[in-house]
Amino acid sequence: MKKSVGKGPHAMPTPVWLVGTYDITGKANLATVAWGGVCCSDPASVTISLRKSRHSYDAILKRGAFTVNIPSQQFVVAADYAGIASGKNEDKFAQAGLTAVKSDLVDAPYVGEFPLVIECRLLQTVEVGVHTQFIGEIVDVKADESVLDAKGLPDPAKVQPLVYSPTNRAYYALGEVVGQGFDIGKQLMK
């Protein structure tokens, strides 16, 4: 029997993404977001959600761009820090010991040390309650060669991305592969 736990953002897990922007003064900034994901395959697009009070909010609107930086598990401290400190008051890149790399495709920085980076051009915004959903078209994905598989694509086992549980506010690592998509379910087809 299931028990109601009430309404809330109990979907799990969510990604741990650090969004890179340049603020109105041109300073590189990071914001950790867990409200995000792929939202379209053509054009390839992602979505992130921020409150208007966040320092990155105006930066994305003014610059029309952002990066999604996917940290490996070794960067859990930096990821959490970027979500609790404000770019209004601190240089998050410097404090976390990270390198801001200027994208040559969009007006936003990315994290040099992170294995996977998605460069996005802002397509549109959608107001949803206390958040604004920013939809970004993927302009390019950059990956360290060390995290690519035999086909030249990012391998989650090598990236070792973090995931987040909003329910208990905890970071987790991914587990083992349990099946191949668009294949394992065929055993139930008639």
Task: Using brief descriptors, characterize the structure shown.
190 residues, mainly beta, seven-stranded antiparallel sheet, three-stranded antiparallel sheet, 4 helices, 39% strand, flavoprotein, Flavin_Rdtase-like_dom, Split_barrel_FMN-bd, Flavin reductase family protein
Shape: globular
Strand content: 35-45%
Task: Give the strand tally.
Answer: 12
Broad structural category: mainly beta
Structure description:
The chain is mainly beta. 14% of the residues lie in helices and 39% in strands. It has helices at 55-63, 76-84, 92-96, 156-159; strands at residues 14-15, 17-22, 28-33, 36-41, 44-51, 65-70, 100-102, 109-111, 116-128, 131-143, 162-165, 170-173. The strands form 3 sheets. Strands 3-2-6-9-10-5-4 form a 7-stranded antiparallel sheet. Strands 1-11-12 form a 3-stranded antiparallel sheet, with no helix packed on it. It has a two-stranded antiparallel sheet with strand order 7-8. The longest helix has 9 residues, at 55-63. The chain is globular. The model has no long low-confidence stretch (mean pLDDT 97).
